Amino acid sequence: MSKEEFPSEKGLPQEDQEKQAKAAEADKAGVKDDKKVKDDKEKAAKPADVELDQLKAEVAALTQKNKDLEDKYLRSQAEIQNAQRRYSKERANLVKYESQRLGKDILSSVDNLERALQVKADDEASRQLKKGIEMTLEGLVRALKDNGIEEIKADGEKFDPTLHQAVQSVPAENDDQKGYVVQVLQKGYVYKDRVLRPAMVVVAQ
Hints:
Blueprint: H1 7-10, H2 12-96, H3 100-117, H4 124-146, E1 149-151, E2 164-170, E3 181-186, E4 189-191, E5 194-197, E6 199-204
Helix pairs in contact: 3-4
């Protein structure tokens, strides 16, 4: 039997070539597919990275905004508390020193009554008038004291610039007298822990 009688054997090498060609094409196609998949992944990864960066930036911005708002809130709370403390202090001072203005206005009347008592009473009518003035003065002084207003000790006291106002100085008779009040020209008064009016004094130097 000749080789022509077996066509399958005759075409075998050609089929192998075709198979090899197909296999090569398949390999090329596979490589292309792998490259395409890789490219697609890279392309997909790039937008994801951009989106992630945007989200990070948004989170950072929101975090900073939250910190700023928290800082403003804390500052506002501190300002409110300070305002409340100032208001409470001012209100307490108003209550504590509510008689200050009235006391200051009354002092001039006290001064006038004291000056009136220095006038000599020669007759009964004058003495009775003087007695009435004394009683009025005592009532005013008592009312002032009941409201926290008291006379500042000055005569014979060491000069204190926070309580006394030196309007005149005289030579001291001795070293022990230096810096001390030797005469009171006008009485001074304190209202609780405030100087309502300093005492006008003469100081030995």
